[in-house]
Amino acid sequence: MTDEIIKVPDIGGSDDVEIIEISVSVGSDVAEEESLLVLESDKATMEIPCPKAGQIKEILVKVGDKVSEGDEILVLTTAGGGAQAEVPSQPVAEEPANEPTVEEASAPAAEASTETAVETIKVPDIGSDDVPVIEICVNVGDEVAEEDSLVVLESDKATMEVPAPKAGVVKKILLKVDDKVSMGDAILELETKGSAKPATPSSQPQQKTTATPAASTPTTAKPPAPAQAASTDSAQLQEPSKRIHAGPAVRKLAREFGVDLALVRGSGPRGRILKEDVQQYVSEQLNKPKAAPAAEGMGAIPAVPAIDFSQFGPVREEPLTRLRKVGAFNLHRSWLNVPHVTQFEEADITELETFRKAQKEKGVKMTPLPFIIKACVHALKAIPQFNASLNPTGDALIMKDYFHIGFAVDTPDGLLVPVIRDADKKSLTQLAQETVELAAKAKDKKLSPAEMQGACFTISSLGSIGGTAFTPIVNTPEVGILGVSKASMKPVWNGKEFMPRLMLPLCLSYDHRAINGADAARFAAVLAAALGDIRELLL
User: Fold this and answer.
1) In what order do the strands lie in the sheet with 17-22?
2) Count: domains in the chain
3) Range scoring the smallest mean pLDDT among 28-32, 238-242, 323-327, 441-445
4) What element of type H or E holds 132?
5) Which residues contact 343 (CB under 8 A, 6 or more apart)?
6) Beta partners for 66?
7) Catalytic residue at 512?
8) Catalytic option among 332, 378, 404, 512
9) Is the confidence at residue 104, as pLDDT, over 90?
10) Which domain holds residue 442?
11) Does residue 71 sit in the same domain as residue 146?
12) How far apart are CA 48 and CA 60, in angstroms?
């Protein structure tokens, strides 16, 4: 029998993803691909499957913990010989990605005492070189606890904190903001207590050792904070002069909104600031009452009055799912920042529907969606301004030479938008198969973050439900979205007489900063023409 530590696999680059359910218990027998736990990110809920069959020996996380790729989940006993895959009580051979390397004097363990020792804290394995330092979280003389943030780094792909491997006092800071660092570079000197007595340079050489977490404390599940940490003190306003406890994802979100984290109340353990705290702060600022009546009419958003609905009759409160809350926040942000315009058009899909039904009789099952995706790609190629995004400063367009199309899927937990990648290179049959597969995964909560990223343009189809028109909200940073309503038979004049034709309502919303009205009208016309002539889509 062999004990193996199961870790979080690649979850699409997401960090600090919350565990909302643990599907197994200690002693459970699990089969290969059986679900171990369920994670919920800002965009999706996903299950982590078991890589092989075995028995659960120990669970290293709990509901509410936040994990990233590589974090330990549980210990699995599997059939087969050999030594244990990992022994928690022994130092591992490789440097863990989330623990800094500590350079300390080597000395016999018997000489450990309460004397202090100064250790040089170095950059751990961060997967990149020359990563800029964007924030230094401590000052000389500060006392830091184990796992407190020392510095924040930002690469092309992610923002990451470097935590303190142990408690101590900062004696000297060896870098500054905007310095570029790599693995092994010195960060600061930390004075710690209870370390081994330092050896003299002449008698014993320095050697590198790796700080190893205790066997009883998994790296992904921090012990619960003391009761007093959950008191009102933990939610007090952060003083600008104090260190701010917040993860990389929270800091990135704050930068996107221009929020000073020193002004945000932290509701996490030891006053740690969570994403929800930043979102609550932004909401409070948007809804803050005006200081004086003169502020009205100057662009400020008036607050929505709080009403006690129970005075009118029985009520109940149903909390929104995390997915719906995040979706509402993103829609609100897009509506506030994007000047929306909606262009309406109708496409004659009589021939398309005849062709589609003929294919169905041959055993080829197709919905109208693959045809609409094909038509959108055709229109994006004709009017490339729609296949673009505004740069962060808003003074240039980022033109895209790929065609990834998102389509909205209605699920019990909220709206999800899986993405068809390289839609221009796929046939109608391939598009039909992929849309069915992705929609099923969305409804079963099995979409990965990678399957919902990178869209150039989004389609929101309500045709199977009904309605004649609606105004979809642009999914920023995209600059356009197509709303599709229910097709209906209408009399259409052909120059000689009225003929019954199946007309499909199209609603094209766009970002007026990037798209002018004439180009939007051309895009809608090209789209309607492509749907009206099936030959355009088959070429």
Assistant:
1) 45-49, 35-40, 17-22, 66-67
2) 4
3) 238-242
4) strand 131-136
5) 507, 508, 509, 510, 517, 520, 521, 523, 524
6) 18
7) yes
8) 512
9) no
10) 324-538
11) no
12) 14
